[in-house]
Amino acid sequence: MLLSISIKNWMSFKEKASFTMEAGKEQANRxxxxxxxxxxxxxxxVAAIFGSNASxxxxxIKAVSFVQRLLxxxxxxxxxxxxxxxxxxxxxxxxxxxxxxxxxLGKYVYSYFLSFTNQRIIDESLAFINTSSSNLLFCRSGSKxxxxxxxxxxxxxxxxxxxxxxxxxxxxxxxILGEAKIDHVTDVLNWFKHSLKIITPHSVSINKxxxxxxxxxxxxSNLDTGITKIRYQDCKEKLPYDVSRLSKDxxxxxxxxxxxxxxxxxxxxRNSDGLNMQKLLAVHGNRQGxxxxxxxxxxxxxxxxxxxxxxxxxxxKRQDASVTYFIDEFDRSLHPILTEHLLNCFLNSCGxxxxxxxxxxxxxxxxxxxELLRRDExxxxxxxxxxxxxxxxMTDFKELRVDKDIRKSYFEGRMGxxxxx
Length: 421
Hints:
The chain is an alpha+beta fold. The chain has helices spanning 57-72, 90-93, 149-152, 157-160, 163-168, 173-178, 185-195, 219-222, 241-247, 301-317, 336-347, 406-411, and strands at 2-8, 17-20, 34-36, 41-43, 46-50, 97-105, 108-116, 121-129, 134-141, 144-147, 196-199, 205-209, 227-234, 255-260, 264-271, 274-285, 291-293, 324-327, 357-361, 378-383, 389-393.
């Protein structure tokens, strides 16, 4: 599970911004918190980030997406034609960006740190923390790698000789060592590969499901969308790179679903003849009881958004799910009541033993509702006069009592995160 994220000198973020999923002392909705008894911690299942346009909400998610992409495609390195650093200060544009992500996986807390420019990785480290001590697994400076005694026992000196050339290409050490199946390192790499899911309005969204997926799309008929069922039509399309890569691991009876914002939703499965590709068609009913199929391009933006969200929400409702979803513009094109319904369905499935989280950005202030979300689950992204973004929880405002109408306080401008008109 995600414990915390800090970013510095990243895009619109100038100063260090810290975000945490550790629960505070709020008494509301404590039954939804995940208990980590070993560390005597409770982790939040959800966090909502509010803010005006261009306040940094999406850039925060882009930082997490950048780390995931770097670790999953290490051969591409950090190279970019544009600096990642703070946009509005020429001096800082030449300074490195920093991202640190802390995770709680099993019995340990892990801290992964990156310092980088658009040309190279400057520093990188991974530490694991138990209840009594902190241990550095590896520390990398440029192309020089130092490993802890415990890690050195599992990697021969001969093997380590092959690491510096890859580090010279600005590949992350976490990917290189993680692929070697080294304890702790592999656990962290696998979280980025398999447990971290990121959905943006324009991204290709990919979900892996079992063969019996009839329940997956049943919610369409329960959400007053006019859709009665989903039909599958065989087709042949060029698979996106990520879908092609993931489909190689498909077993018989497993499917990958992916949504392309431009062309529609597809299902890729494997049978005795190889890969089979189908396009999903939404079936509507008219008053005469006849089926009407509307092309994906002509469906409402809300229906298109649900095609993207429903597999994720289904995944998040599983009791055995071990996933962390970041969803940018969660409520985009959705009615506020529908958005609240989806969140309630997720939160009703959360408890002390569950290990799933949803972090999303939104401009729907109706979600600033203490019956739905705790105050420590409400965050604000704010744009400062110099153009820099800041990120802070609503609990920073101590004068806001539990019985206070915090939505009213938000609209009165007491907490920032509003357009300056």
